[in-house]
């Protein structure tokens, strides 16, 4: 039996795109892509969806996920922290299945362009490097050392991060990455006891931009659907 739990957290109150998690995209509910990727990875005995919505639960079960609880209202608001939601799903799953999981993988339903290989390879990297947790990201389009700026309380504009000397080309700046909200991995101890997403042994798995789009708006939705259809044509 696998010692790795997979969760997919999908609440019903999406504001950027109404009913986002079950809205059809290229002919299939958005959440279905992530459920199918999790199942196809063959890393997990159980793929559990945490939701407060009966509609999302019904779709999730239809595509092979397990939904044995409804998320509490205090964990389903705009202000609820993602880590608290994932911890809740882990503890409820351990109670439900009667076992303790050594590792926990959370896949974001709003990142449907990931490959199954991204899930498998990021988990293998996580274990090989003995990380406490791992996040995924893509190479950033903007560098805080070169062309990402901040404005202080006095209206002064400056680079977000400064180096000794001047960086005249973005390629010469230290590498930076945009988190893509696709895959999160923890050891059980790190998930339950690490207060932040970032710690001494946090790992980074880099994905290309074309598999890193996180749907947060109607424009994102339309762009991802365009990429899916383009891929289907190829």
Which architecture of the largest domain would the CATH scheme give at its second level?
Alpha-Beta Complex
CATH topology of the largest domain: Spore Coat Polysaccharide Biosynthesis Protein SpsA, Chain A
| Beta-strand content bin | 15-25%
Helix content: 25-40%
Oligomer: single chain
Number of helices: 6
Q: Can you say what the CATH homologous superfamily of the largest domain is? A: Spore Coat Polysaccharide Biosynthesis Protein SpsA, Chain A
Q: Strand order of the main beta sheet, please?
A: 4-1-5-9-6-10
The global form is globular
Q: Tell me about the biggest sheet?
A: 6 strands, mixed
Order of helices and strands: EEEHEHHEHEEEEHEH
Overall structural class, as computed from helix and strand content, comes to: alpha/beta
Number of domains: 2
* Low-confidence regions: none
CATH class of the largest domain: Alpha Beta
Distance between the termini: 38 Å
In total, how many beta strands? 10
Overall radius of gyration? 19 Å
In round numbers, the mean pLDDT is 92
GO molecular function: N-acylneuraminate cytidylyltransferase activity
Protein name: Post-translational flagellin modification protein B
Keywords: Cell projection, Cilium, Flagellum
Organism: Thiomicrospira aerophila AL3
């Amino acid at each position: 039996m696998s010692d790795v739990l997979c969760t997919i957290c999908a609440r019903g109150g999406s504001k950027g795109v109404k009913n986002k998690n079950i809205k059809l995209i290229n002919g299939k509910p958005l959440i279905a892509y992530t459920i199918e990727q999790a199942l196809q990875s063959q890393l997990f005995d159980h793929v559990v969806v945490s939701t407060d919505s009966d509609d999302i639960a019904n779709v999730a079960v239809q595509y092979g996920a397990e939904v044995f609880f409804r998320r509490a209202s205090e964990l389903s608001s705009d202000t609820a922290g993602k880590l608290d939601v994932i911890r809740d799903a882990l503890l409820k799953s351990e109670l439900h299945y009667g076992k303790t999981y050594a590792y926990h993988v959370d896949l974001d339903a709003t990142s449907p362009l990931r490959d199954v290989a991204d899930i498998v390879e990021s988990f293998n990297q996580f274990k090989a490097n003995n990380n406490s947790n791992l996040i995924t990201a893509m190479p950033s389009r903007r560098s805080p050392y070169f062309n990402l700026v901040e404005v202080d309380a006095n209206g002064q504009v400056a680079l977000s991060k400064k180096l000794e000397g001047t960086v005249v080309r973005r390629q010469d700046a230290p590498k930076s990455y945009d988190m893509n909200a696709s895959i999160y991995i923890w050891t059980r101890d790190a998930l339950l006891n690490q207060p932040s997403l970032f710690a001494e042994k946090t790992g980074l798995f880099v994905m290309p931009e074309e598999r890193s789009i996180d749907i947060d708006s109607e424009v994102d939705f339309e762009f991802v659907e365009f990429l899916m259809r383009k891929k289907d044509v190829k």
